[in-house]
Amino acid sequence: MAHPSSLLQGLTLVEEAVRRERSGRLPHNASRLAEASGIERSRVSRLTKELRDLGYLERDEASLFGAGSGYFHIASALTQPWLRAARRELRRLAGAHDVTSLVATADGPAAVLARIESPAGHESPYLHAGARVPIWCTGAGRALLWDHAEADISALLDDVQFVGVGGPGAPRSVAEVIDRQDRDRDRGVIDAAQEYVEGVQEYALPVRGLSGIVGAVGVGAAARGSRRTREMQAALRAVADRLSALAGGDG
């Protein structure tokens, strides 16, 4: 029998740690987490370290686990009106324009997919809610960098490994990312051609809240004719404006 994915096992560990914390009882250590989750102890050790590195779990001086700041950040984001409304908006985009549509939020040099919808029969094997993708070679990821100055982009991507990541159109240096950001700001939309996956054309725009960019909305599909592209981009812009209005940024 195949082992459950690391993602599902990691979510199980976070869920169990939060459940225990909410119960008011003594939090679990690694052994108790393994026992409660049914995951072998060695995998619990590896996964909890990764979850701590990502900020989803914290471990105190007694080696007891609780929810980390990353967990609370995501939980807070998911309650926001704009993100709740995004599901309906994404479904409309996917159905009306035969595209994969998604919303992402920033987490350092990664974009975290908070919502994703695909047209019927075209579910993506490489994109799913909760996935972390490179912020610098995905449409929605680069939309999250829309307001970043050159120095901010350079600092964020200073340790990024560009070689071997992304599709054939992915940028291969910080300078190339900056050039594409300048180009796409002039165009008024992020245009990421085969940057993450070969054969996929992505377009994306930021979602703005009171304090600046709170997320990004994007669409992806095979390249298509100019008329359909214009219609898709117009629909994308309307969604970004509506979500920004709900987030308090008014587009």
Automatic annotation (TrEMBL):
Listed SUPFAM superfamilies: GAF domain-like (SSF55781), Winged helix' DNA-binding domain (SSF46785)
Domain IclR-ED as annotated: residue spans: 63-249
Top-level taxon in the UniProt lineage: Bacteria
Database matches in Pfam families: HTH_IclR, IclR_C
Membrane-traversing stretches: none
Keywords: DNA-binding, Transcription, Transcription regulation
PANTHER family in alphabetical order: HELIX-TURN-HELIX TRANSCRIPTIONAL REGULATOR, ICLR FAMILY, HTH-TYPE TRANSCRIPTIONAL REGULATOR RV1719
UniProt protein name: Helix-turn-helix domain-containing protein
Species lineage: Bacteria, Bacillati, Actinomycetota, Actinomycetes, Micrococcales
